[in-house]
Structure formats: C-alpha cells, structure tokens
Amino acid sequence: MLVIDGGDKACVRLLLELRGRIAGLPDGAVVHLIATDPAAPIDLPAWCHLTGHAYLGPVTVEGDPRPAYGLRVSAAARATEAASPWRAR
C-alpha cells in the first residue's frame, strides 16, 4: 500500500499529483490519499469513476488524524488530459 500526503492542496492539483504518483503502479495496488480539501470526498470518487480506478471510500492512516481516502489502481484506467485531470482523453 502506498500513502500519498496531498495535504491541503486543492483538488485539481491533488488529482494531478495523484495521477503522476500512481502511474506505473501494478494493477490492484491500493493507495491511501490524505487530503484535507473539503471537495476531496466528492471529487475523488468522481475521478475514479471517470478513469476506471476503484474508489474504496474513507480510510484511516495510522498515526494521522487527517481525512484519507482509498483507491485501487486499475491497469486499464482511462487517460485524462495532461493539464485537466477531470477530462478524459
């Protein structure tokens, strides 16, 4: 499992970083994303639906009280535009 600390980044920047960090991970890899942006619980499931990754819902990262969300990487995920992670190519 990979933990990514997205901190207080806005969702656009958060998704850009997430996309880059999970590129090349094996199919089925689980990622826990720490994100304090209030839009994260809305935007992350929508992005997973768009791309084909599986949204796993809220998770707890041991030793960190901030909100975190899980996803399972799909090797067959759909690509998004380089500067627009919410737009499929």
TrEMBL record:
Domain of life: Bacteria
Positions of the UPF0033 domain: 8-58
Name of one Pfam family that matches: TusA
SUPFAM superfamilies attached to this UniProt entry: SirA-like (SSF64307)
InterPro entries: TusA-like, TusA-like_sf
Protein name: Sulfurtransferase TusA family protein
Origin species: Actinomadura parmotrematis
